[in-house]
Amino acid sequence: MVSAGDFRKGMRILLDGEPFVVVDFSNAKMGRGRPHTKAKMKHLITGAVYERSYLSSEMFKLPDLENKKMEYLYNDGDGYHFMDSKSYEQTALGEESLGESRFYLKENSEYQILFFEGNAISLDMPSSVILKVIESEPSVKGDSVTNIQKPAKLETGLEIKVPLFIKEGDYVKVDTRTGEYLERYNK
Questions:
Q1: Which pLDDT score is estimated for 141?
Q2: What's the chain's average pLDDT?
């Protein structure tokens, strides 16, 4: 059990039987009143964000969460399938659970899957991934003005803007939080 006064960013709690993560919080004590904590929390399953105030002495249970390293296998249209390399147990996550993360999934790569009460609820993506450019317009000689970018399609279907010197077959590092090109990657 943890009290509202002990909230920290990233802390996971149970609220009405549902798992939440504390996104932001502030503690306050006004005059003769009792201290309270104002918290912004994100629902771990639906992604909805709530802002509420609690007495600092209110107690919350910690959720039974488990992280498993699983290998991404394939997408069959109904879900994205992952397999535990040790037990060969398979699980699927829906498109709504993955959100934009689905554009960074590479087959046969390992990812951290978050489980709540035995059910997969979300995927923890690394901050950046390396992807291959499969489609890109060739650059024209003389186009050397700085910061000009062109569209490129990556192996996962994601389309991003890349510098003119990037060509088909190159590998690029992409920020998974913003979807932006970071740098060319040399194998």
A1: 63
A2: 87
Could you tell me if 133 and 171 are in contact, meaning their C-beta atoms sit under 8 angstroms apart?
A: yes
Other Cβ atoms closer than 10 A to 141: 6
Q: Could you tell me which of 73, 153, 65, 145 has the C-alpha nearest to residue 110? A: 73
Q: 49: which strand partners? A: 42
Task: Burial-class residue 106 by CB neighbours within 10 Å (0-12, 13-18, 19+).
Answer: middle
**Residue found by looking up tokens 């959720």 in the block:** 63
| CATH architecture assigned to 2-60 | Roll (2.30)
Instruction: Specify the long-range contacts of residues 31-35, CB closer than 8 Å, at least 24 apart.
Output: 35/5
Task: Give CATH 2.30.30.30 domain extents, the chain.
Answer: 2-60
Structurally, at CATH architecture level, domain 128-185 sits in Beta Barrel (2.40)
State pTM to two decimals.
0.72
- DSSP labels for 14-42? EETTEEEEEEEEEEE--TTSPPEEEEEEE
- Answer positive or negative: Cα dihedral of 56, 10, 14, 25: positive
